[in-house]
Write a structure and sequence with these properties.
The protein is an alpha/beta fold. The protein is built from twelve helices and five strands.
Length: about 250
Amino acid sequence: MNQLFIVGAQRSGTTYLYKMLDAHPEIFMAKPIRPEPKFFLNEELFSQGRDVYEQRYFSTCVKEHKYIGEKSTSYIENMQAAKRFSMYYPNARILIILRNPALRAWSNYCFSVDNGLEQLDFASALLAEEDRMSNLKYKTSVNPYAYRKRGYYINYIDAYDSFFKKNQMKVIIFEEMVGRLEEVQNLYRWLGVKNNFNPVGLGEVYNSSVSQGNMPASFFYSMMQGYKESIERLEEYLGRKIHVWEKK
């Protein structure tokens, strides 16, 4: 049985990606989708071993399933989790779905507001981010206020490269995939499962923020300027331009 992990990024369409994989008859995704498993972030759970993990989340999969997988979006920021993947599943496939980093930051902010984690306005939250990164205690698995920092995607990808070969990792651009059958089927092809499958829910919207409106244009342009170098490094890694982010 092959293993795959959707590791993030947060607010970048990971639920959509999960649904596209879970719909496929040859892929068994861990359930429930919430709360996320986060098994490899938990020292006590991880120490119980691989058999416990598989029994807990994949006991009902059948021989027709070529892959078992899970989605836990905190994994992308945790190199201990990446190391633990490589210990249990050295040949795992790693899926990283990314969204325009400025819009991802806005969505992350709206999500925090919706869940009672954020009382500041967006401008104040960005100004407070650095202090919150170092001086704030929180109960979530990763810092809920890393709105800007979380968008420097290439840093996380470079770290995962320390544990997995590049051909085991697939970076997906959210805006290029959502609602597009060809792109979803390209993913199936990469995994080596039936690639002419047409999944239910292709055009659905999942896990959107209740309070999410349009991001103020002034924030968008200034943040994208700050991400310029990071995006260029990501494009170099991918070997192509991400034109859909330019259009925004």
